[in-house]
Amino acid sequence: MSAEHKPEARARDLRKTSPLPGKSLARASGLCVACVAGLFGIAFVMWAMSGEAGLPAGRERVVFWHFWGGAEREAVRDVVARFNASQDEYEVEEVPVPGQNLDMKFFMAVAGGSYPDLINQDDQVIAQWASRGVLTPMRELCEDEAEYERLMRWLSPPAKRIGTYEGELFALCNALDIRAMFYRSDFLADRPVPQTIEEFDALAMNRIADPNRISYLPDDRRLWAWGTAFGGDFVDPISGETSIDDPEVVTALEWMRSYADFHGRDTAVAFRSTARETGAGSMLLDGRYAIVMDGQWRVAELDAAAEQAIAAGQMPIRYEVGPLPYPPGGRPRAGWVNGNFFLVPRGARNPDGAWAFMKFWAGFDNESEAADTAATGGWIPASRKVIEQPTFQAYLDEHPKFRLFVELTQSEAQIPTPAVSVQTFLYERVNRAADEAISGGAAPAEALRRADVAVEARLKAGGGL
């Protein structure tokens, strides 16, 4: 957004505000000494980039951290180049911060006084960071209240949920990740895609003669999706208290465990150790699984594999997709949603430039450009207005199975990780409970009860990094 549309007093206030209140700064400064080397490396990169050398005349630098590498980084560079060419006020410089623990790297950089203007993340950190006062609310970045209200109407339901903490939007989604069921067509054998759990079990609760193949075996990290489809809530939507051992969540985990029982505990453990449902590549391609729950990114992978097989004169793998089946009383078209989102640290040097770039990428007031970005990266836009653009519709025509995932973004039953101040701990503790139950280490109800107690204790203790 151009400078004349931004009140200078507000922009100055945003820049001078400390990103870490006293208590949070003390926590960040007290992180393990082992991170100091990483801090120095990141601080050096940021210091080197903070100088004016090489900055086009009349432009303000916007330092942008992200986690993408490889081919995806090339897509990021393309968006950055298009934004920089589209205007003459700001110059975005992208800085890949690969590896794990980006949150720790961020807090260490803040403690050292060198932090970016903008971050793109996909971890469960929004509520955790917002509760510590280190994020700039989107309302403060908008030109006025009218623009903020228009933004809220523009975003799809899951995008609003992902970015919101205690009624305030702290993150702007630029892409959504939706899960659905993938079925090998040779396993379906002309049967319709199941819509209910009863229909699903009739199909999936069958053994395959080949010991290296399995019909279906749920991954522990899929409890977030199945618990929601079964009608459960991990945090009570009214009281705000944790409800990890919600009866419907327990029932979902018992159902997931029933597949490990069906295939045999030893077989299930051995199979999960080498071929998880959430593996790096699609488990449908080599036939290790007949059915998987997976994200929309697999569509392009499977379609490309089919094209390669046809070009080589081979029989391609055919597949179908469908929403998560659900039991009586459950939620149709439900699941766990996450995505990529932009965050602006409190006290960022250039919040106006960060906001301008966020809007460009996400497509707010710029739907056509954003549709090109989404089609290039195979990403689901955060707004229906971007989805409706001809470029993205052409992508859906090219990959028709992708359309289901896009349609599911409009479902109110696509729920992200609950926005509590210990969001990361909640996410990891639920996954651990599911793993304990599926592997036979604990009964589902007991594993979830212990997780609930642990999360409540962490909340009462005030959380922590």
In percent terms, what proportion of residues is strand?
A: 5-15%
Strand order, biggest sheet?
A: 2-1-3-11-6
Radius of gyration from the CA trace? Answer: 23 Å
Morphology: globular
Low-confidence stretches: 1-18, 20-50
Q: Largest sheet, described in full?
A: 5 strands, mixed
**CATH fold-level label of the largest domain:** D-Maltodextrin-Binding Protein, domain 2
Q: Care to count the β-strands? A: 12
Structural class determined from secondary elements: alpha/beta
CATH superfamily label of the largest domain: Periplasmic binding protein-like II
Family: Belongs to the bacterial solute-binding protein 1 family.
Organism: Stratiformator vulcanicus
GO cellular component, one term: ATP-binding cassette (ABC) transporter complex, substrate-binding subunit-containing
Keywords: Membrane, Signal, Transmembrane, Transmembrane helix, Transport
